[in-house]
Amino acid sequence: MTAAVRSIRTQSDPQQAQEALRFDGVSCTFASNEGRGKTYTAVSDVNLTVRDGEFLSVVGPTGCGKSTLLNVAAGLIHPSVGTLSVFGEPLRQGLNKKAAYLFQVDALMPWKTAEDNIAAGLIFHGKPKTEAIAVAQEWLMRVGLEGHGKKFPHQMSGGMRKRAGLAQALALDPRILLMDEPFSALDIQTRHLMEDELLRLWSTDRKSVVFVTHDLEEAISLSDRVIVLSAGPATRPIAEFEIDLERPREVSEIRMTQRFLQLHTQIWDVLRGEVLKSYAQNNS
Amino acid sequence: MHKITLDPRNRLLVLTTRLALLFGFIFIWWLCTSREWLSPFFFGDPFGVAQRIVTWFVTGSIVTHLTTTLIETMLAFVIGTVLGLGCGLWLALNPFLAVVTDPFIKAMNSMPRLIFAPIFALWFGLGIWSKVALGVTLVFFVVFFNVFQGVREVSPAVLSNTRMMGANSRQLMRHVYMPSAMSWVFSSLHNAVGIAFVGSVVGEYLGSEKGVGYLILLAEGVFDINSVIAGILVLTVFALILDTAVSLFEDHFMRWRPVAGQTVAANA
Question: What ipTM does the predicted assembly reach?
Answer without folding.
Answer: 0.82
